[in-house]
Amino acid sequence: MSGLILGIETSCDDTSVALVDRSGHVAAIKTVSQFEIHEAFGGVYPELASRAHLEAILPTIEAVMAEASVTPKDLTAIGVTRGPGLIGSLLVGLASAEALSMGWGVPAYGVNHLRGHIRSVELESGRTEFPAVIMLVSGGHTLIAELKDAWSYRLLGTTRDDSVGESYDKVARMLDLGMPGGPAIDRAAKLGTPVLRLPRPMKNEGYEFSFSGLKSSVARHIEQHPKVSIEDMSASFVAACVDVLTAKADRALAECKPRSLVIVGGVAASPQIREAMGKVAGKHGVELCLPPMKWATDNAAMIAMATWDYVERGLQPELMPKPNLSLETP
Ligand code: KG4
Ligand code: ZN
């Protein structure tokens, strides 16, 4: 199949638009960050997010099409995130995609954001070897699943409370490291030593995760030892997260015996996690598939990439927002 897919991602706080061909080549991408809007609130303010998407979406689409000298007739489809995400933010992307679809005569597909993350490893770099074990570690999600092929998933486990990205962000706030928390914690952790004893919640139990206890334990420690080294605390927190995540990956590789281990989502940008997962994959003799750093966090290129699966399967999920869309539903 030739042509390009126009991907639109507005599930949270970034307006992202991209053009991607079947091989995963990104012809153009533009992401408008809302960081400055939400920074003062210490988290995403949903109403302000939708308004900012509304302002940014059409100029961003125009800019991306112009940059790649693309006209609607070059498009095979439009792919837009339909969930999971914030309802108001999702609606802006979906309504824009639907209007353009009608105006241009190009089909539009509502795409699962989680499938977008999973297909992010196909962008520009390599190919996933199936069957695969996939771990999605982002701000919104923490889950581990078995993939028989690019389409069929078996969910092994998810988090009972906070996501791992959320706990990075909350711990960063406790340590006054600012937002986004993940990269700030990583940088501090590199300068410290993991000397503080922190819990490894549910490390030895199945595939479920729990990160709220770890976060509370960090909060307690800071309360009792206000002069604690930020670097040592960051290093100890990262070590606890890495320990839990690698234990689950190790268990899944032993049980599922896949050909590759795929780690995706914003937290997959963490160098500590990338390195530790490399060791786990090596132990089991499977390939480690990681998205290039820039495609680990939310972006429209991964949504466009995932849309090819929908196009080739002849699926046309409705363009209705699904804020709680799960991995198993297209
Ligand atoms: O995938 P993503 O961009 O958005 C969601 O779908 O949630 O993930 C965002 C999360 C944030 O919690 C952020 O702190 C974390 O990914 N993150 C990182 C790094 N870069 C982003 N966590 C650890 N290390 C990083 N380098
Ligand atoms: Zn995401």
The radius of gyration over CA amounts to 20 Å
> Which strand order spans the largest sheet, edge to edge or round the barrel?
3-2-1-4-5
What structural class do helix, strand and pairing data support? Answer: alpha/beta
- H/E series: EEEHHEHEHEEEHHHHEHEH
| Average predicted local confidence, pLDDT | 95
- Span between N and C termini? 21 Å
Helix count, DSSP H or I runs of 4 or more residues:
10
Based on DSSP secondary structure assignment, what is the total number of beta strands?
Answer: 10
Largest sheet: 5 strands, mixed
In percent, how much strand structure appears in the residues?
15-25%
What's the quick description here?
The protein is 42% helix and 19% strand. The protein is an alpha/beta fold and 330 residues long. The strands form 2 sheets. A 5-stranded mixed β-sheet has the order 3-2-1-4-5, with helices on both faces. A 5-stranded mixed β-sheet has the order 8-7-6-9-10, with helices on both faces.
